Every structure is written in structure tokens, then in C-alpha cells.
User: Which sequence fits this backbone?
């Protein structure tokens, strides 16, 4: 009986390490290949969405740091990051296909190690995202508020203060006012901008509906009275976050993420099976 089970185990190992393992790995890496190409699409979309980060706006975003990296650089290069990840996934898939087709133990070992590292990094990123998301939101909002308070000095697009110009361009481009939403009749965040000699104004001209860079004027009903319907009601923090809002796709991302993890585990098992089959 023990001889029968030993034979059966050896036979299954050979089958797994042979055509079946090879077939599974080819299918999996074909999917990876398509996924790598697919990451180019969100990368291009993100690059399109961040076209608002002009040379005038970037100095303001650079006042905020995310884990030691300037927010302006993070936003500006987010799409490029997706494209780079897409290229990496594509190359890993090619490595897996070569290893499977050639049944190269060396290539398959390298492939399995890379996939394992990717899997572990995904788990770490997910844990950090869920544990630090609220903290990150709070830090970014607070640093933006501090930047507005300390650096807003002029109601102008081409004044002597670069950061003031940047804030005004942000208000115009994102159609927002202040870091937090301004309510009718109130100055909002601009009540705490001691370096701005505002006179009778409560909010800058750039916060008013209909104002453009070429026609930078607004009536007192907006700048002085902050009358409802004359100014942008959204805060710039929320407007910035909405540029990258993926909440409506959260279920899709969750499903894709779980699928990727399952595929990665299968890829590692298939590569191990082929290596063991080669040994046998």
C-alpha cells in the first residue's frame, strides 16, 4: 500500500511539474502581461487629470510633504508611477513566460522570488493604507492650512509673492476657496491670514465665480459680502482629493486586488511545481 501511495505521489508531482504546471503558468503570465499593459491606461488618465498642476501651482503643493516627499512631486508623478509599475509587471510576466516555456529552473526561481516580494509588498501597502489613511488626510489638510495662513499675502496672479500667486491659481483652476469650505458671509480660512492686507475683502478675487486669469476682477458682493452664489463653495482640500477620487471604483479595485493576490499565489505554486518536476 505504501508503495502505491509513493508511486501516486511521484506521478502527481511529475504531472504537476510537467504540462499542467507549465500550462497554468503560461495562462497566469499571459494575464499578467495584459495587466501590465492595462496599467498604462490609468497612468495616462492620471497624467491627464493632473494637468492642473502648473508651474504656478506646484510651489504651493511643495509646501506639503508626504512621508518626506513634496506633495507637488507626488501628484505630478503619480501617473508616471503607474506606467513604471505597468512596465515592471510586463517584464516580470515575460520572465515567467520564458521560464515556463523553457522550463528553466533558474528563471522560475527568480520569478517565484520576485512574485513573492510583490505579494508581500502588496500586503504591507494595504495594511498601511487602511491604518494611516485618516492620519494622512489630517496631515495634508493641516499643512495646506498652515501654508495658506503663513504665505498668502496678495490678491494677485502676478504679484511679488510666488506662493500667493500659486494659491490664487489653485482657487481659479480647481474652482475652490480656502483649504476648507467657506460659508456665506464668512471669511473662512482667510480670517487667519495675518500677512494679507485685505482691507474690506473677506475672500480674494480668485474665489469668485466667473473670474479668469485674463479678467481678474470681482464685485464686492463676492469679495466683501461673500454672498451665496457668487463664490466657490468647495474647499480646495476636497477639490484636490476629488481629482483622484476612486471611491466609486472601490468594489472593482477590491475584486481586482483579491484576484491579483490569488493569481500570484497560483503563479508561485506553478513555478515551484515545474522546478520540482525538473528535479524528478
Assistant:
Amino acid at each position: 500500500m505504501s508503495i502505491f501511495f509513493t508511486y501516486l505521489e511521484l506521478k502527481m508531482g511529475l504531472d504537476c511539474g510537467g504540462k499542467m504546471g507549465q500550462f497554468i503558468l503560461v495562462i497566469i503570465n499571459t494575464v499578467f502581461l495584459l495587466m501590465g499593459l492595462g496599467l498604462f491606461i490609468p497612468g495616462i488618465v492620471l497624467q491627464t487629470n493632473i494637468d492642473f498642476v502648473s508651474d504656478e501651482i506646484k510651489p504651493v503643493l511643495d509646501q506639503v510633504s508626504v512621508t518626506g516627499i513634496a506633495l507637488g512631486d507626488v501628484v505630478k508623478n503619480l501617473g508616471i508611477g503607474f506606467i513604471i509599475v505597468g512596465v515592471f509587471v510586463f517584464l516580470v510576466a515575460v520572465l515567467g513566460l520564458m521560464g515556463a516555456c523553457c522550463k528553466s529552473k533558474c528563471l522560475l526561481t527568480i520569478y517565484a522570488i520576485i512574485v513573492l516580494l510583490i505579494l508581500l509588498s502588496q500586503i504591507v501597502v494595504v495594511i498601511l493604507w487602511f491604518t494611516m489613511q485618516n492620519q494622512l488626510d489630517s496631515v495634508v489638510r493641516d499643512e495646506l492650512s498652515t501654508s495658506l495662513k503663513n504665505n498668502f499675502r496678495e490678491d494677485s496672479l502676478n504679484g511679488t509673492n510666488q506662493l500667493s500667486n500659486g494659491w490664487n491659481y489653485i482657487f481659479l483652476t480647481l474652482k475652490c476657496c480656502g483649504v476648507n469650505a467657506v460659508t456665506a458671509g464668512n471669511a473662512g480660512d482667510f480670517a487667519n491670514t495675518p500677512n494679507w492686507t485685505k482691507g474690506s475683502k473677506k475672500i480674494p478675487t480668485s474665489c469668485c465665480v466667473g473670474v479668469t486669469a485674463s479678467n481678474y476682477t470681482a464685485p464686492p458682493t463676492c469679495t466683501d459680502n461673500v454672498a451665496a452664489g457668487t463664490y466657490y463653495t468647495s474647499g480646495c482640500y476636497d477639490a484636490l482629493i476629488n481629482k483622484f477620487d476612486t471611491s466609486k471604483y472601490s468594489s472593482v479595485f477590491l475584486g481586482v486586488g483579491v484576484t491579483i493576490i490569488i493569481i500570484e499565489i497560483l503563479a508561485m505554486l506553478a513555478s515551484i511545481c515545474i522546478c520540482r518536476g525538473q528535479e524528478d
